[in-house]
Please model this.
Amino acid sequence: MRKSAKKVSKEKKGGAQPLLQSAKGMRDILPEEQAWWRRVREAGEEIADFYNFMRIDTPIVERAELFERGVGSGTDIVEKEMYFLKTRGDRLVLRPEGTAPVIRAYVEHGLSRLGQPVKLYYTGPMFRHEQPQAGRYREHNQVGFEIVGGEGDPLYDAQSIVIGARLLHALKIKKIIVRLNSIGCRVCRPVYRRKLVDYYRRLESKLCKDCKRRLAANPLRILDCKNEHCLEFKARAPVVMDYLCSGCRNHFKGVLEYLDEVGLVYVLTPHLVRGLDYYNRTVVEFFIEELGIALGGGGRYDYLGELVAGRRMDVPAVGVSLGMERMVAAMQAQGTSGRERPKARVFLVQIGEEAKRKALGLIEKFREANIKVIESLGRESLKSQLRLADREEVDLALLFGQREVFEGTVIIRDMKSGVQETVPLEKVVEEVKRRL
Ligand code: HAM
Model:
C-alpha cells in the first residue's frame, strides 16, 4: 500500500513519465546512416545537373484539394492516407507526393513562358498514413524528376525512365527490373475500364472487401491488390494493351524504341497500374525483387495540368520519383558503401587555458584558407588528443600549448613520421597548405 502511494506522489511530481519516442512510422536518420544518405543525395543532384534539370522546392503543406483533384479522391493515398492539419481556415495537408505540387507551381507561376519542356527536380519528405512495414514509412523522402510542357514526345517518357535507371546505376544498386506499361488515354481507357468491370462483376462475390469497393469507385486499382484470391483473378483479367487507341499504341511504341536505342532493358508488365490516378499512357516502376518493393515509379500525366488549373489546358508531362529510404536500404542490403564526410587532414591539439582561448581564432584562419581542421577543445591531455588525431587518420597535428602561445609559434607534427617542427603562428596556415 505504502509503496504505491509513494509511486503516485512521484508521478505527481512528474517523475515517472513514459519515454517519448518518435511517432509511429516516422524514423530518425542517425549519423551512422548519413554516409548512404549523402551518397543518394549527391547522386540525385549529379544526375539532375547532367540532364539539365532545374531544382524546384514546393511547400510541405498544400491544400487538400490539390491531391483530391490531382491524385484522385478514389486512391488510397487521398482516401485513407493524408495527414490533415487542424487549422481554422483552409483544409491543409502534409503533401503525400511531389508531382501535383510541381504542376501546381508550374501553372501558378506561368512556367510555360520558359523554354519547353521545363525540366524540374526536387528532393524532400512526403507523408502518407500507411501501415508501417519494411520499406514503408509514414514519412519518406523522394528524389523526383519531372519534364513538363512541350509536345508530349515519347522521347521524354524514355528519358525520364533512363534517368531513374541511371540514378540506381550510379548508386550501384543491382538487379533492378524496369516494369513498363501503357494505360491509354481518355479515349481508350474507358473502353478498357468497361471490359475490366464486366470481367470482375462476375467474380464480385469472391473479391476481397477492398476490391468490391474499388470495383465501383476505381476498378483499375483492383489490379494492384495483393490479396491472394484477387491475384488469381488478375492473371486472367483483360489487359489494357489490347484496348489502346492507335495514338496511344504509337506513343508507347515510340517509348520502347527510344529505350531500345539506349539499350535499357525493360519488362512489359500488362497489369501494371499505379496507385495515383493522374497517369495516362506510359507507367513505369523500378522494382527490386530482392526486397520485394519498388524503389521508384512514375509515368506520363498529361491531364494533371488542367485538373490543377481547373480549366482546359494542355500541359503534357512525364516524370519519375525514387524513394530515398528504399534506395538506402537496397544499397545496404547489397553491401554498397555510402559516401563519408570529407576527412579532415589536420588536428589541432591545445594544452592549457591560454592555448584553448586562442585555438578558436586559429581554426578560423584555417577556415578562411578552406583547410578542414578538427579539434577536441573539451579534452585537456596531450595524450588523449593525440590518440584521437591518430584515430581520425589526419596527416598533421598542430601542437599549441602555453609556451607556443607565449612565443607566438605552433608545432607541426607529421603523424606518419612523428617528425615535429616549430613554425611562427602567422606562417602556420601557409606551411600546412604547403605540406598538404
Ligand atoms: P509513388 O510510386 O507513390 O509515386 O512513390 C514513388 C516512390 O516513393 C516509391 O516507388 C517508393 O520508392 C517511395 N515511397 C512511396 N511511399 C513510400 C512509403 N510509404 N515509405 C517509403 N517509401 C515510399 C509518386 O509519388 C509519384 N509522384 C511519382 C511520379 C513522379 N510520377 C510522375 N512523376
Summary: Residues 1-11 have pLDDT under 50 and may be disordered.
